[in-house]
Amino acid sequence: MQTTDIGSKENGKLWQRKPVPSNNGILVNLIRNASSYQTKTVRFLHVAFDTTGESFLAGDHHGNIYLFDIGRNRFQLIQKTGLACTALAFNLRRTTEFLVALSDYSIKCYDKDTRQLVSWMRGHEGAVSSLSVHASGRYAISTSSDTAQLWDLDTFQRKRKLNVRQSTGIQKVLFLPLSNTILSCFNDDSIFAWESDTLVCAYQLPVPLDGPRMHYKAFSLTQDGKMLATGGRTNLLHLWCLESRQLVRVIQMPQAVRTVRHLDFLSDSFDGGSSQILGVLSQDGIMRFINTETCKLLFSIGSHEDAITSAIVCPKGRHIAAVMDSGAVRVYSVRALTQEIHKPPQPLVRLVTGEKVADGLCLKMKVHAGTVRRPKRTSGCKIRTRLLQPPDVSTLEDKENDLPDGLNKKRLQTLLRTFGEYPAKYRMFIWRSLLRLPENHAAFSSLTEKGLHSAYLSLHEHYPIKSPKLQRGLQRVLSALAHWSAIFGETEYLPLLAFPFVKLFQNNPLICFEVVATVVVNWCQHWFEYFPNPPLNILSVVENMLAHHDKELLRHLVNCGVTSQLYAWPLLETLFSEVLTREEWLKLFDNVFSNHPSFLLMAAVAYVTLCRAPLLLCTHRDDFEYFFHHRNNLNISVMLTETYHLMETTPAELHPNSVLGDFEPLTRGQYPIFNKYPTFIVEYQCQERERIRQEEVEYLRESRQALQEVRAEAVRQQAEDEAWYMQQDLLQQAEVQRRRLLQEEESKLAQQRARLAAMKRELKVKELTLLDAARRRFLTHQQNQRRIELHRLDDEIQRKVPSLYSPLFCARLAKEQERVSQEVKTEVEARRRKAELDDLAFHNLLQSDSDLNQETQRRVWLIN
Q1: Rounded (10°) CA dihedral 471, 476, 479, 485
Q2: Considering the domain boundaries, does residue 834 fall inside one?
Q3: Cα(447)–Cα(449) distance, rounded to whole angstroms?
Q4: Domain assignment present for 809
Q5: How far apart are alpha carbons 21 and 299 in whole angstroms?
Q6: Closest CA to 178 of 274, 247, 48
Q7: CA 23, CA 552: separation in Å to the nearest integer?
Q8: Does the global pTM surpass 0.85?
Q9: pLDDT digit string (tens) for 758-797?
Q10: Does residue 720 fall inside a structural domain?
Q11: Domain boundary among 644, 676, 708
């Protein structure tokens, strides 16, 4: 297998020499290590083939899009988006363009040759999980969890939008090949077909009523668009005939398959689009290819150690591009993978068993696996036949040391004594072989389907863990153990014992459960006989061994009041996880699983004896408690050497071998019954817990009922308050309205009064003007009369001039002038007084109107 590190290169060759597919079909393994430090790998996320099947796109989590051309042996960096991609599409009508869905919920179209942005499409409010392109390459459907949108790739405008209720959710929407039909698959397992032009529902596939619910997650169509394969959270596959719109076949995958993550039909050049080979990617990271007609497993890619996260088959069925769990992209040759399938059948082995007959030959046909052997033709004589025998049977000891997967326990122990630990890459594989795990998928599923055990519902309160995923994994494994045996629902230290294995196997709960169960059955023998107390019999064995190997230390511990429950039990109940680092703990359990169950007790004694120097300096009980619950400076290699020494030098009467039995693996099919504990105590505790739970349920029910009553009363009171406040608001609004009307009436009255006063003033002015004009006419008339009178007098004077000089006449004239002037003064004074009286009356009238207005306003304010 050739491995190509892209690194920071923007273009280059995929391989330096033409690759020859290996036995597992791998052409090339593509990785990208960061340039600053080689240990960090930039993970690839998604891949997409073009219509030819010779080129594919791959996007990493840094936002880089690479084009890999298998036919031309070239790769190049064609775009830097800056955001991680969530889906890719490379089968558009314009072959140089491709679609990429980004983590900011947008979709962009780029040109791979010019490396220019062609269009930018927005509209989703969640991550786009898939892109489906019409066979013509002119339309595309983007799918997120809450909506699906139909895009016109000529104008890059949205044509249609499919919205669903949040409770339903969309799984996938895709085009049906060779037609204008759109398939939509929802979270409730319903599948609808729509016409892409009008979006009228064409039909709905019937939801299977019998059997478990599928929870469809994966979908795949054949190239002729006649068959649909669906899979979900079970090991069942449904094959639908879209012409008859019926479920035609249900295929059950092996028990190792619990969830189907991806489905992809493998097309063939001669099948006319009706593919019969289906690739099934399951939760274990293995993609199995099966024949849908014969239901036979043809081949598989990936493994537990090198799992596949996603894969895609090229349209021509020549290559498979798989994104590995390590972040690499692996290209497989379908021709190499199917080479064994297309081989002609092996020739038959011919064995001569008969005697001479008429034609001199008598052959019997029989099929044997292995090398083909052809007997020589002979004449009519009898031929002695020698059958090939298998190798000699191994001895009984060798049979006991033989492990699954071709391993040998003796050889593993030799390897372990030489290097001190197993290789980290193969450690989990070796452990599974040493423990002989049965992998009872059905039995484990029956335990997990019972849900969380009541004893571990509040586990997060007593054992808080930062990682929610780890917390759920621990809760799931402990619940399965409690459902397996009632004692594990009452054991307080079980989370401490199981936590290291849960953290180690957090991605495989079945293996984790079986490892913990195997440890409990073999290395925790007789631990539960004194339940709920610690295993006093096991602790006495440890104390007896310590007394034999270090009497002085044991005497010091006894003098300080420290028993085996303080110096041995903390090590055993946590399986040394509190006092050792991860690497030290793994190294220890490499040796624990490779030896007799008594090795764990010997390790506890070795730990105590090697720490004798600091223990002899401790005198207080708190110091001892702290010492055995925290890490100390201890060389794990020295501890293992001392443990093996104790295993060899401990006398037979003190050796735990006499107390503990040999290793017994879990049984296949169903897990063994575990009842090695005082059942009456556990049953009593279970009954007490159930009673307390019932009381809590009753208390919660009463509290809930009281709370409901309080809430109802609060709602009623709130309704009354709202009604009262609403009434007050209405009254205030009515008062404001009445005030507004009153103010309007007052303003109208004031305006009317102002107009009336103005009219009065205008009339008074007119009257005064008329009076003044009359007075002036009268005065003018008087003046004219006086002037005429004066003229007359002047004429008379002129006529009587001669007599004017007489004294009597002068005196009379003076008297007459004085009388006339006095009358004029008197009349002028009278008219002046009359004018003053008229002005005073007018002013009094104005003052009375002003006083009347003020009195009216005062009364209005008093009313308000």
Answers
A1: -130
A2: yes
A3: 5
A4: yes
A5: 15
A6: 274
A7: 63
A8: no
A9: 898 888 888 888 888 888 888 888 888 888 888 888 888 7
A10: yes
A11: 676
